[in-house]
Amino acid sequence: MSLKVGDQAPDFKLYSSDKQEVNLSDYRGKNVVVLFFPLAFTSVCTAELCQMRDDIATYSRLNSDVLGISVDSLYTLARFKEEQKLPFPLLSDFNKEASLAFDSYYENFAFGMHGVSKRSAFVIDKEGIIRYAEVLPKASEVPDFVAIKNTLESL
Asked: Which of these, 117, 145, 111, lies nearest to 37 by C-alpha position?
């Protein structure tokens, strides 16, 4: 069953690339953009997260935090974050629990890989309600950043 606008966002507990435990519920009182992405260091994922990095002031002005989530290890994510100078947490969903809970999961991915996060974007409001949900059918596509910003501006 897919999550939709108006649903309560599933809470999760993941570890960041900084080896800190992060719960979605820790962000109550702030709007949050949650981005699931397939794999660190790939071209589309790098472009997507660097676009968020380059526009982070806009998201801050809209009283929102950004969280990036993939099934990569926290060590891989730490290197990726450092190399790309990403100013927001990258969370390891190595056990795939958050990806499954958000229906953002490829059972079968490219090159015979199984269990990779689907590229998707969610805007979650201060009360933990999903206000925007986009799960992309193709890993080569990026979320609609204009729609994400418009949703944040309406909150």
From this structure: 117
Q: For 13, phi and psi rounded to 5 degrees?
A: -130, 110
Q: pLDDT 10s digit of each residue in the chain, 155 long?
A: 589 999 999 999 999 999 999 999 999 999 999 999 999 999 999 999 999 999 999 999 999 999 999 999 999 999 999 999 999 999 999 999 999 999 999 887 777 767 899 999 999 999 999 999 999 988 899 999 999 999 999 99
Structure tokens at 62: 């809209």
**Residue 150: which H helix or E strand, with range?**
helix 145-154
Catalytic option among 45, 71, 86, 130: 45
Active site residue 50: no
> What is the C-alpha to C-alpha distance for residues 16 and 81, in angstroms, rounded to an integer?
10
